[in-house]
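In the previous lecture we treated proteins in isolation. Real proteins rarely work alone, and many bind small molecules. This record shows how such a complex is specified: first the sequence, then the SMILES for pyridoxal-5'-phosphate.
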Amino acid sequence: MRKIIPYGRQDITDEDINAVVETLKSDYLTQGPRIAEFEEAFADYCGSKYAVAVSNGTAALHLCALALGVQNGDKVITTPITFAASANCVRYCGGEVVFADIDPDSYLLDINKVRELLENSPKGTYKGIIPVDFAGRAVDLEAFRKLADEHGLWIIEDSCHAPGGYFEDSKGNKQICGNGKFAELSIFSFHPVKHIASGEGGMITTDSEKLYEKLLQLRTHGIVKSDEKYQNSIEFAEGSSVMSIGVETYPGWYMEMQDLGYNYRITDFQAALGSSQLKRADEGLDRRREVASQYYEAFKNSEYIKGQSAVIEGHAYHLYIIEVENRLGLYNFLREHDIFAQIHYIPCHLMPYYRQFGWKEGDLPNSEEYYKHCISLPMFPTLTNDEQSFVIEKINSFYEG
Ligand SMILES: *Cc1c(COP(=O)(O)O)cnc(C)c1O
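The predicted 3D structure, ligand included, written as tokens:
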């Protein structure tokens, strides 16, 4: 029997397993050295100054929204064609999500639609934009930065689909996702269907020291451990009622909770797995790009494929999407042959949760039209050429009979 071909899956090597086992045998299961190592390696990979590892991508988004000070009623713009967490982080902080439509060719948040929203409302209405490097295609953050600056907005780049992806800026330079040059903050997920697996896990990259420190604090309950930053007096910290003459440092046990934070830490054994996986990230990307160009070649002249992921430089191909008629028929037919294609995504604004805020069908026609036809084909580095040929053959046979 043929084994199931999923749309995405992790690749765990003996080296990965050894890295985890070594960590399990070490002194630290959490809050140990593997976390800082992973952060440094990841910052290095993206080209950012700082990286903060967290428990998952959703926690990363939540911390970003908190660090940027999203509050009740703050309006933030994002795309509906994304995993709900991109939008939900705004709601966690009481903010209002304003969805803007996608560009039907790139499937990415359409900057012109964002500009329309900004130009048609009083200055200060919107606080930020959360563009998503959907499917692995890097958003042109240079253009978004310019627009955001004109209107005083921050940017959180949701780069869960695109570690190692890049766009070419106006000078022709490669700008790697999460490099800290355009977005205040960029976030990544290490769920097993993503490029780098750590079980659960996430990362935030930034070039801002201030945001970096805020993120560290919020990741661990809002606790500060630094003599220079304490707000209470040394006398209070010591627990003495008299002035302690000549004492200039706080006692060793002392710490302060200065903000309402969370426990969004990653463990050391997850970080060890993440670091080990990161070493093979570029290899995985190369293979993803190869698989993508093979799909592209197979379908470029086919009549029943109305659209597909572009073959462009810098695409990280978390997903390879085709747009078809009778998508339900194809989905079921592929399942019968143990090919588990998937749909990314049901438009967020039409989820029952978001409908309660007034979103309805017809609001974002490009996203809704895209949803009617999209299907994500198996795309992962260990997909064999045989398996891919089987997938292509089944799709062709479904339409050609
Ligand atoms: C996976 C994903 C997330 C959330 O990441 P988790 O680690 O699953 O919490 C957020 N945004 C996008 C675009 C994702 O694909």
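Summary for your notes: The chain has two domains: 11-221+260-277, 281-400. The pocket of pyridoxal-5'-phosphate is lined by residues 56-58, 82-83, 85-86, 132, 158, 160-161, 189, 191, 202 (CB under 6 Å).
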